[in-house]
Amino acid sequence: DAGVIQSPRHEVTEMGQEVTLRCKPISGHDYLFWYRQTMMRGLELLIYFNNNVPIDDSGMPEDRFSAKMPNASFSTLKIQPSEPRDSAVYFCASTIDRGETQYFGPGTRLLVL
Amino acid sequence: SQQGEEDPQALSIQEGENATMNCSYKTSINNLQWYRQNSGRGLVHLILIRSNEREKHSGRLRVTLDTSKKSSSLLITASRAADTASYFCATAGYSTLTFGKGTMLLVSP
Questions:
Q1: Mutation site, B47, B88, B96, B101, interface A, largest A CB count within 10 A
Q2: pLDDT tens-digit map of B97-106
Q3: What is each CA distance from A39 to A11, A17, A87, B102, in whole angstroms?
Q4: ∠A13-A17-A21 over CA atoms, to 5°?
Q5: CA B58 to each of CA A22, A49, B30, B64, B75: distance values in angstroms, whole numbers, following the listed order
Q6: Which residues 22-41 in chain B show a CB within 8 A of chain A?
Q7: Measured distance CA(B2)–CA(A97) in Å, rounded
Q8: pLDDT digits (tens, 9 = 90+) for A21-50
Q9: B85 in Cβ contact with B68 (< 8 Å)
């Protein structure tokens, strides 16, 4: 398996623009997680899905953030409108069972100017 | 919060030496996991220890878990320059992991 795939790897955008991050989990993994990593706050869980259904989005910072998982092999995290404080590395991870080992993608490094 | 907190925040050693990192947490857990992150990369799972286990080994890694003290340690023996990375502990609740801020390990040749 190719592992968790994320795109784009780098994104530079201007404040106010819409940003869409994409993730393809490992086939057969029923759980998908979106994290944000910054120096100040470390690794924060934003939202997670089980069998394509959002289970807990309490970590989503604001209504500007939204996430979808239309099928078992694809998820998106959207920020609209983006702000400079959204600059961070966003990771997607998947796992076969809750609480077990998570497999991380390479991350998307987002810079909002 | 059951967030793990690693100690020390940074560690600098020479190749061949052992590196020990500690993790403390606040509430009961199902398991505790250690991950490594190389600069600019995603996290890579190293080892998982369940709440009913006290010690686990994997290659040069040794992990201990003391649930009475709510603490864990990661020992890397005979370190190599390639071990230079950030190391995170993650505590597992019902469905999610909560990560600490990590220990930055620098291994000098």
A1: B96
A2: 999 999 999 9
A3: 18, 23, 11, 11
A4: 70
A5: 33, 30, 20, 12, 10
A6: 30-31, 33, 35, 40-41
A7: 20
A8: 999 999 999 999 999 999 999 999 999 999
A9: no
Flag if A102 and B97 touch (Cβ within 8 Å): yes
Are the C-beta atoms of residues A36 and A89 closer than 8 Å to each other? yes
Q: How large is the average pLDDT for residues A59-83? A: 96
- How far is Cα A39 from Cα B8, in angstroms, rounded to an integer? 16
Contacts of residue A98 in chain B, CB cutoff 8 Å?
94-96
| Residue among B60, B68, B67 at smallest CA distance from B20 | B60
Nearest residue in A to B43, CA atom: A104
Residues 80-99 (B) with a CB less than 8 A from some CB of A: 88, 92-99
Question: pLDDT tens, B88-98?
Answer: 999 998 889 99
